[in-house]
Design goal:
The protein is mostly helical. It is 54% helix and 4% strand. The protein contains four helices and two strands, in the order ααααββ. The chain has a two-stranded antiparallel ribbon. It is flat, with a radius of gyration of 23 Å. The two termini are 40 Å apart.
């Protein structure tokens, strides 16, 4: 995909933002790098399963906080759980 100033204007319009010329240059540079990364992903997927397994580590349980220790530092707790503000109606 070719990134052009016209495409950038369309993205600005869709996002309802205005970019300064400096911001446009930075955004175009960032978007080009992101697209290069995405284009390289299929090549990464071509690695054999054995190669991929060689790059993974085994899961090892590590010490962690007990429920009591974790709740001690919580701003609010209720009945053994973290209490958080309601997000959805």
């Amino acid at each position: 995909m070719e990134l052009s100033p016209e495409l950038l204007r369309k993205l600005e319009s869709l996002a309802k933002i205005r970019l300064s010329p400096e911001e446009e240059t930075l955004l175009l540079t960032d978007l080009k790098r992101i697209l290069e990364f995405v284009d390289a992903l299929p090549q990464v997927g071509e690695a054999s399963e054995e190669e991929a397994q060689g790059r993974l580590r085994e899961d090892e349980p590590l010490p962690s906080l007990s429920q009591e220790e974790a709740l001690k530092v919580a701003p609010e707790a209720e009945e053994g759980f973290f209490r958080v503000p309601k997000v959805l109606e």
